[in-house]
Amino acid sequence: MQRIMAEKAKELLQNGTVNRVLGWKKGEFVYDITPAVFNNTEEIDAEFVYDDFCANNLSKYLIKESRKEGKVLVFLKPCDTYSFNQLLKEHRIWRDHVYAVGIPCDGKIDLDCLKKQDIQGIVGIETQNDNFIIHTLYGDHTIAKEDALAERCLNCKSKKHVIYDELIGRDGEVLDSHRFDMVEKIEAMTPDERFAFWRGEFSRCIRCNACRNVCPACSCENCVFDNPKSGIANKAAADSFEENMFHIIRAFHVAGRCTDCGECSRVCPQNIPLHLLNRKFIKDINEFYGTYQAGEDTESRAPLNIYNTEDVEPSIVYKKGGNH
Amino acid sequence: MIFSYYPGCTLKTKAKELNFYAYQSAKALGIELQELPEWQCCGGTYPMAKDETATKLSSVRALTLARDLGNDLVTLCSACHNVLKQVNNDMQNDEKIASKANIYLQLKTPYHGETKVLHYLEVLRDCIGFEEIAKKVVNPLKGKKIAAYYGCLLLRPSKVMQMDNPENPRIIEDFIKAIGAEPVIYPFRNECCGGYLTMEDKALTQKKSNTVMGSAQEFGAEMITTACPLCLYNLRKNATEHDLPVIYFTELLAEALGVKED
Amino acid sequence: MDNKEKQKERILRVSGVNVLKCMKCGKCSGTCPSYDEMDYHPHQFVYMVEKGEIEPLLKSKSIYKCLSCFACVERCPRGVEPAKIVEAIRLEVIRKQGENHLKPNQIPQLLDEDLPQQAIVSAFRKYSK
Amino acid sequence: MQVNEIKEFRPKIVAFCCNWCSYAGADLAGTNRLNYPSDVKIIRVPCSCRVNPMFILRAFQRGADGVIICGCHPGDCHYTSGNYYARRRMTLLFSMLDYLGIEKERTRVEWVSAAEGAKFAATMNDFVETITKLGENKRLEDLRCKE
Amino acid sequence: MQKIGVFVCWCGSNIAATVDVSAVSEALSHEPGVVYATNYQYMCSEAGQNTIKDAIKKYGLTGIVICSCSPRMHEATFRKTAAAAGLNPYMVEIANIREQCSWIHKDMATATEKAIILGKAAIAKVHLNAPLTASQSPVVKRALVIGGGIAGIQTALDIADAGFEVDIVEKSPTIGGKMSQLDKTFPTLDCAACILTPKMVDVAQHEKIKIYSYSEVEAVKGFVGNFEVTIRKKARYVNENVCTGCGLCTEKCPQKNVPNEFNLGMDKRRAIYIPFAQAVPKVATIDANYCMKLKTGKCGLCEKICTAGAIDYSQKDQLIEQKYGAIVVATGFNPIKLDNFEEYSYSQSPDVVTSLEFERITNAAGPTSGQLLRPSDGKHPHTIVFVQCVGSRDTSGCGKPYCSKICCMYTAKHAMLTREKYPDTDVYVFYIDVRTPGKNFDEFYRRAAEEYGVHYIKGMVGKVAPKADGKLMVQASDLISNEQLHIDADMVVLATAIEPDKSARPLATMLTASMDTNDFFTEAHPKLRPVESPTAGIFLSGTCQGPKDIPETVSQAGAAAAKVIGLLAKDTLTANPCVAHSDEMMCNGCSSCEKVCPYGAITYVDKEFRMPDRTVAIRRVAVVNEAVCQGCGACTVACPSGAMDLKGFSNSQIMAEVDAICK
After folding, report:
1. Structural contact between residues E573 and E224, judged by C-beta atoms closer than 8 angstroms
2. How does pLDDT run across E139-164, given as a tens digit for each residue?
3. Which of B47, B96, C95, E188 could pair with B55 as two cysteines, CB 3.0-4.6 Å apart?
4. May I ask the CATH class of domain B2-120?
5. Which residue from E214, E217, E194 is spatially nearest to E281, judged by alpha carbons?
6. Do E121 and E184 belong to one domain?
7. Are E494 and E338 in contact (CB under 8 A)?
8. Interface of E with A (CB under 8 A)
9. Predicted confidence (pLDDT) per residue in B214-262, tens digit
């Protein structure tokens, strides 16, 4: 796949369709992937990579990249296309400066899973049926995919590319995932348990802002948490309230816009399951206002920017909101 | 269509034909009435007092049983229908009564009025449809002028019974039309026959029953039909000045459907 | 609270009726089928309970004449439910030891071969505790 | 000091009222001299849709024990649709607070028209009672803001 | 730092009786920024206002806080006061310590404590206030009156007489409304048609009034001074400008079996019809539900016989767009449906009629040509029972909780006229209370009882039972004699409750005017602004605001007209400056705000920005049209970046209030 993509990139660079390519490159280690812009075929030959470690959602980078001169080629996994579409809907990306190539994805590895299995010194990876063969300095490890894939990939919501200029490989389907199972589990807890659960999670937050910086929906010119005029500007949480506040407000600001790409949880150095906040909003929106998938298209109105005169009353929360 | 069925004590004794013809007709209409495995007398009259719980428990048991079977609960006797619907309403809306009843009965899943209670007539109207019934009539009661007698328990209190317009009902009239006969509308069809006062004050009951039957007769009725054993009794026994036949509606139904066996 | 007030309070509680909602239109009495057999009439029950004049009602024969036909409940424009007041007054009487209006030994002579069970249990429930 | 005097808990309650219906409803409650506890303090906003979740969190941070938002009945919004947006926003926000284990009873939305002075007073009495039963807001407090 | 003055009003004893006003001014004087604090008996009085003006000048105040009654009451007053002293009027904040404090709390300590907190919140807010300048918008000098009954007619005439253009939109083919269906009017017994018809003609002939009959309001946009209204003129299949109203077609049309709504269905009209002789405009209308030509294509008789050539079967509904400066609602009432009152056998006997039907029966142009004959057999009734409060004062859910106000009087009128014309008739009136608060009203009612021998019985009818012999058995209680009565009547007349016309609710939504739970329009102030809706530019005339008799309706109609004239006399209006504003440095251009704006006040522009690194970036940013924005604030919450804020109710102002209250 990497080879086909690299060839495609070079072809489009050479025939002048695009001026730059947005893709992935290795860092210091093979699993240490970073997004990168390649300006010519040489750079692609030297550094372009696409493998089971390339988890990053590249769509957010297009906010800046698409505003530059010329056209940029971007490779988008199915879930990334939702973010891309959502950003288009919000007029954040200049569409005619982007050449989007949809690429297939069979799920990406969660490095923490490998760490837990005590797999170290990784130098390469291969796929074999339902397993990954991890090459390490100390020999090969075989690990079942379900033990190595990220949670968001195990619960993949869609293998379908909702937007692209060109597709490599075949398009997939929207999947019937179990992504709300954990939300339901939390809902079934007592309020005390829920409170304890989230306190346990949020208290680890170090306000590194990684979640915010990676989130395609958190792309404000000036975040309210950085803006002294907003009244809630805050650089580091001083106490539990501010920990809660940051995450509630962040989740609320992306409610109805979050495509559930899962980048927030992926990048959190403290492993806070932030996606469970977003999924709660998504689940509620689906239940209260009908199924809605942000980024599925560019026309529909976001659930918080529309209403129905017959909408449920807020008091529904008292009736159904989980356990007492 | 399967329903749980609550016959009530009178239908097992003095009003056997009300029950019998209901079964026969149901069969002909493709309805299965499954008698609740254990039921007790509803008490005949709804205990209105807010502090009465014990007297409501037999109804709650029946309602809970139907819920656990996953069926709507059908009744036939006007009194049972009235008591079951009113108690069910309490279980839905009166927190105090509901919590007391649930504590008494120590139910696994507390009951809060989930069961839908239907009168047999409502099944005919809402689940089958009078038009459908008309199609299945093989023996239309052509030319018969029949007066529907509702009495008080079938329709009132209308907010709870939710059956028909309490002052100008049409469910039995529509039923009468469906079986090919001609309904007679008269103003006393929803006024009381004297009810259980027949035990206490015959004169009063006779006055009431006479007014009802007299009014029906005045408007040309040849026969009165009812759903209530006590109404039937009073009209037959206590309407001393008149002499119209009084027949359960299920008997008419069975006759029209051609399934009436004696 | 003296006994009279307690009694009133009990009747209001047992009936669940708010007598203050009554606007004294008299529709309950205009509608009652047992009116002529009663010494006190439905609207008087409501008003006398409001005034706390309960004693005469306890002695009234009206409480055994009410048919519980719910006509007054159905037609009351204020949702007062006079029948429930009548029931509460009757209970106030028959709940006392020895005050049953209908005693089991009276029943056999009241029966005839067609009388439905429904009539017996209803009457028993209405008149006895 | 051996025994701390137990102070009777008096909740702090912030009520956001839309200018057209609920604030007028509150005025009517006053005109009709309908009592409700002084613990309720009203902030006038043009419309219930002006209420930002930030305000609600801010109130809890600064020591509020309950926050209630009152607007025109659905269909009656002075701005035609504001309360519909507010309804969605608050439904989702309250559900999230509940999900985080924060007592859902501390937040409420009520529709009170300009003609419903009695409803306004009854609502406030009920809300204060609920909050008083719940006690002090502990789960969304900011200790630095407490005396 | 602002220099703030605090003014605490006693409101006589309204505030001072429960709030220690001097304690409040004392406490607030120590708040940061407060340079002057005082209290006074009546801040809204001239002396009170002078105190404020003097303090503004003397202390150079930059902001003031008035602790007084509701801002809905006197905010405008105090803003004017500030402006008169040279202070920007939007530097005024009101702490509502009357309606929301002194009037609801009994304990002085509690009320005082709360008043101080409310004062602090207002001070906190005013610290963040900025002077605002209201923009001016022109006033369209034309009024719209919705509804052509007596209320609409009177309002339209009064506005037109003052020299302004008025359009009346009436949904039926003629103006005249309910009053045109009445026979006599209480308490003077003059004939309704005799006093209404001249007014209808005045309307038709007034050069400033245009009638859109058979028309409905389809959509309303805009705001006070500048409403844009779409009117649907329904196809009547007759060219209004050509039809002479000769009525030939209405006699020749072969479709004779159409229930005549003017006579409440008690007789028939043709498919092409003129509702009644004095109709305005007097033109025919084809009822598309019955016309054979329109339904089947066959017939066409009216076209053939119309000498004027007015028939046009191809007519379509027409949409008319018109601008108005003010809108008057005069949608009127209807009797309620009696489905929930079948104990009176309304649908079971033709001889049980509503009062409005009785009105038609006694009217010379009615179905019986004014003869009192009962509908079932056309015989003269000898016993008539009138039942009052049918569906009024009903809290059971079957009827209306309010008193319909007019029934006592018209029933007395009906009873009296019946007895006068037909002395051989026994007339009974069952009543709960007889309510006669009006000039000459009680005298009128007493005449019915004393001079005309009408039997007034305190009690209520429980049941009306039609008998086979055609009589109606009326069972009722007589509360005074404590007996149940059974009267054999020939006719029963039900004084049916009235309710607002069904068109009022959707109209209220279009106008964003508020309604009460009974669908009556709410007035801006129940006593002081009874003919204005809280929504600026919308006025109320007649029974759409509450039950009223004719004299009251006419006075209110005139009052509404006076308010409209006051508005239209102005050339410009001052707009509300508390509008949304987008900080373009923070705006993402995401369109969230645009999506929720009910007024379409937000647009986007691509704008060049010089970035810190000296590059130039083009960004899409929101721009608010301040003339169109009404200041609801929906956009401010939809905006994820906090770029959108609302002047006068900014995020920081509201949070400052929150902080002050929670301290």
Report:
1. yes
2. 999 999 999 999 999 999 999 999 99
3. B47
4. mainly alpha
5. E214
6. no
7. yes
8. 585-592, 595-596, 604, 617-620, 638, 640-643, 651-652, 655
9. 999 999 999 999 999 999 999 999 999 999 999 999 999 999 999 987 6
